[in-house]
């Protein structure tokens, strides 16, 4: 039997429960019992503390170097723009190259750039534009590192523990967010010159990358998905990632919600230093405490998230988080009392973790292993794009008007967006089964075997379907369309013979024979159940007949 249409032996039905019930009976800490995940988590936390110390020290150093709200807000843009520019490219490289080596390279990149920042700051020769430029360079390394860093999580834990693992990874970041800003602010405040204090913070952050490099160096990686075919080229890998997104409406909904949320919420990250200095009359330590309040709320959310997920649906969590952040933005705009601001920043941190963990988990559950890093890269590109573009807008509004106007406008915009984003559903229904399907039939052996780059290739599958089953078959076969297109087809269609009402033909076109072979590797168990459903309507004595056609190129004539 040809693998396009079925298997020699029946496949057991996939037993997958509702997404909302994934973590109902667990504490959420089970992944930490696994040594590989635990080591990654500790290393990530250490490095994250250093990064958030740097973020606080760098932003405060900018306030010491310039009084321009726009330049201060651009620190957030410098942190986010590299992901906006490189997110998809970073995901493509992470899906093509060996992730362990790739991660080590980009960790070393960040270490070198941060060390240079430390030297320049300690010698007092750093200016606002140099600080922006080196922050941008450091975050190029972060942008290229993050898709691969997140994509290895499913390699470290069982699939049923993935939501907890993502929540714990978020907790690591937010624990760092709670501790790092306060430590960074304390170190800067401990020196007469802001540049000296920031320089020592940068030096400590450079050292924190060593912990991650060590964990990666000793890790003996076993990838979940490994192709036996030649590696994709970068351009083709990027196009394949975009094609997958185009034919995955659930991923599109996640990305849209991520952009809208971060675009408005970016006002908090980009303007908090100005609120601390001008409205609350705080120094670097006070700013660190305010930033740490966000992190504290985020840590509380990470601890309680398993219970929250068990009780509330993803859409409900996202709505509540947006409402909570509207309140946080409004308080920052109008209530200039430190204690009240701290309380609402904690609430904002809680909402941030609930939102980010929910969206991040959904991306990892919706994307199969062969495209996971590209999906995460695109997600981070959209996510950081919202932060970068929002920071520019709110910084410009604050520059030409006031921080109160910028924060109030962002609160109003987020409130108005809520009724529209509720139509974009996240993690509804059952978890798609993206376990790679292991073919029970060999690669088709053709009399005229094509070369890998020959193409386009057209595949035709002939079905005989009783007239009374026609409507059911058409519904089933059309569910295959997105699966075929996501896995590499450039065109798809199903046609009914005008002379024979029981004869129907599914056809799809691949760019090349190699791309066709890759599409076979990309098929998941979930996709294969769709194939079997369509085949179940076939009434012929033999399996549906499959034809492989290769484009007939005109041969060059010799004189």
Automatic annotation (TrEMBL):
Its main location: membrane. GO terms for molecular function: transmembrane transporter activity. PROSITE patterns: MFS (PS50850). It comes from the Bacteria. Pfam families: MFS_3. It is found in: Cell membrane. It is a multi-pass membrane protein. The chain crosses the membrane at residues 70-97, 109-131, 197-219, 254-275, 287-305, 317-335, 341-363, 375-397, 403-421. InterPro entries: MFS_dom, MFS_trans_sf, TM_effector. Keywords: Cell membrane, Membrane, Transmembrane, Transmembrane helix, Transport. One of its GO terms (cellular component) is plasma membrane. Residues 36-425 form the Major facilitator superfamily (MFS) profile domain. This is Major facilitator superfamily (MFS) profile domain-containing protein.
């Amino acid at each position: 039997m040809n693998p396009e249409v079925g298997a020699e032996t029946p496949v057991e039905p996939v037993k997958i429960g509702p997404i909302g019930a994934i973590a109902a009976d667990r504490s959420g800490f089970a992944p930490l019992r696994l040594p590989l995940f635990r080591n990654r988590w500790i290393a990530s936390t250490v490095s994250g503390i250093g990064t958030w110390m740097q973020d606080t020290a760098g932003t405060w150093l900018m306030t010491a170097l310039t009084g321009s709200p726009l330049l201060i807000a651009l620190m957030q843009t410098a942190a986010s723009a590299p992901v906006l520019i490189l997110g998809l490219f970073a995901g493509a490289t992470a899906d093509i190259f060996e992730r362990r080596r790739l991660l080590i390279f980009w960790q070393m990149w960040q270490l070198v750039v941060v060390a240079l920042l430390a030297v320049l700051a300690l010698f007092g020769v750093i200016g606002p534009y140099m600080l922006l430029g080196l922050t941008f360079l450091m975050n190029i390394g972060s942008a290229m590192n993050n898709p691969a860093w997140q994509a290895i999580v499913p390699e470290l834990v069982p699939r049923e523990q993935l939501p907890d693992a993502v929540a714990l990874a978020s907790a690591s970041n937010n624990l760092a967010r709670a501790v790092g800003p306060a430590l960074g602010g304390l170190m800067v405040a401990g020196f007469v010159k802001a540049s000296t204090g920031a320089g020592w913070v940068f030096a400590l952050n450079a050292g924190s990358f060593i912990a991650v490099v060590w964990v990666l160096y000793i890790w003996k990686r076993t990838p979940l998905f490994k192709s036996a075919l030649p590696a994709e080229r970068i351009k083709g890998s990027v196009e394949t990632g975009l094609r997958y997104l185009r034919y995955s409406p659930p991923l599109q909904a996640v990305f849209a919600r991520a952009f809208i949320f971060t675009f408005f919420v970016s006002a908090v990250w980009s303007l908090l230093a100005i609120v601390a200095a001008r409205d609350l009359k705080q120094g670097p330590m006070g700013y660190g405490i305010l930033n740490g309040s966000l992190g504290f709320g985020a840590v509380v959310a990470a601890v309680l998230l398993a219970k929250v997920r068990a009780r509330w649906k993803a859409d409900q969590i996202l709505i509540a988080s947006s409402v909570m952040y509207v309140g946080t933005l409004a308080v920052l705009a109008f209530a200039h009392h430190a204690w009240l601001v701290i309380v609402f920043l904690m609430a904002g941190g809680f909402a941030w973790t609930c939102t980010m963990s929910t969206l991040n988990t959904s991306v990892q559950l919706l994307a199969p292993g062969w495209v996971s890093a590209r999906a995460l890269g695109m997600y981070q590109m959209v996510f950081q794009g919202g932060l970068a573009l929002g920071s520019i807008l709110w910084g410009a509004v604050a520059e030409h008007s006031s921080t109160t106007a910028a924060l109030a406008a962002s609160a109003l915009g987020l409130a108005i967006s809520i009724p529209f984003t509720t139509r974009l559903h996240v993690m509804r229904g059952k978890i798609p089964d993206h376990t790679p399907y292991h073919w029970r039939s060999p690669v088709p052996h053709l009399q005229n075997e094509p070369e890998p780059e020959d193409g386009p290739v057209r595949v035709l599958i002939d079905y005989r379907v009783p007239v009374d089953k026609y409507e059911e078959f058409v519904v089933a076969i059309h569910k295959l369309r997105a699966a075929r297109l996501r896995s590499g087809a450039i065109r798809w269609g199903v046609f009914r013979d005008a002379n024979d009402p029981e004869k129907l033909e599914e056809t799809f076109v691949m760019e090349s024979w190699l791309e066709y072979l890759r599409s076979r590797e990309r098929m998941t168990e979930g996709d294969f159940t769709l194939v079997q459903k369509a085949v179940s309507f076939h009434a012929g004595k033999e399996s549906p007949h499959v034809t492989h056609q290769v484009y007939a190129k005109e041969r060059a004539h010799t004189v």
